[in-house]
Amino acid sequence: MSLHESLTVIDGLIVSRWSRSVFESMRRGGIAAANCTCSVWEGLEPSLHAVAQWKVRLREHADLLAPVHRVEDIARAKETGRVGVILGWQNSTGFADHLPYVALFHELGLRVVQLTYHTANSAGSGCLESRDGGLTDFGRDLVAELNRVGILIDLSHVGSRTAEEAILASGQPVAYTHCAPKALKDHPRNKTDAELRFIAERGGVVGVTMFPPFMPRGNDSTIDDYLDAIEHTVNLCGEDHVAIGTDFTQDVDADGIRYFTLDKGTGRRLLEVGEVRNPPGFERLDGFPNLTAAMERRRWPEPRIAKLLGGNWLRLFGEVWRDPAGR
Q1: Model pLDDT for residues 150-203, shown as the tens digit of each residue
Q2: Which residues lie across from 205 on neighbouring strands?
Q3: pLDDT confidence tier of residue 322, bands split at 50, 70 and 90
Q4: Exposure pattern of 14-30 as b/e (b: 16+ CB <10 Å)?
Q5: What's the CA gap between 156 and 100, in Å, rounded?
Q6: How far is the C-alpha of 57 from the C-alpha of 34, rounded, in Å?
Q7: How many helices, marked H, and strands, marked E, lie in the chain?
Q8: Where does the UniProt annotation place the signal sequence (predicted)?
Q9: Cα(163)–Cα(124) distance, integer angstroms
């Protein structure tokens, strides 16, 4: 058995065009579980529809997929040769500013929620908002309710001030599920060294992305460039607070990318992304073993590789996920 096959591999965020082909690619990649985006700009009804659609996928592709509600479900998925699906939102607009919906969606399986996506909402400001007004009073109430029910708070697309205030307001550690170091590329979606250290010092985890627009060499990036970004983050945060969050957009077409990069999906253009070409050897999710092999070529110790590829997500999920009824 290879090292990769022995590990519990977890991707902190995938936002692909979901299909059986993608699920098969995930399984071939040896992914034990992934945070699968099912809401970006959507409000209540479309977000509910997306969760319902995942229930259908989980039933129709039960030979490939398994729902993840507890940490133990990830081990069970790996043992049965399936991919554990962690339902996640990249925005909190699906709650429609109604806090009781947080517990409702938790019961439906939602386990990761980002406070804002790119721009402002009722909770705070995104990283592409022209003025970051910080965490709102409603945002503080939302953070408290997410803590109470046991949903991990994601701050990847959140503005600097809003993110800092959310980290301080949260009674539990939080995450950047998919970001890259701003020190390596000055991009508004990337995080400064100070921001990366700040979340780690408070128990959080940084999922490092390889999304080419956020990498120094863009579409010319290699797996080694990705490892450079991971290593930079490890040097800042320590190996106990860094993980993988690829932000894989497998099979997403130009219209899908456009939807992600327009304000609210239909407004002004926020980012120029263009064609996305992932590193050679990691063009698709089934290339995950090549990432592990590259880490081994750098002679990273096996315990470090195990933490980066999934162990740190397991620890964080174990600290945050809980049954709000105390069961």
Answers
A1: 999 999 999 999 999 999 999 999 999 999 999 999 999 999 999 999 999 999
A2: 175
A3: confident
A4: bbbebeeebbebbbebb
A5: 24
A6: 15
A7: 13, 9
A8: none
A9: 9
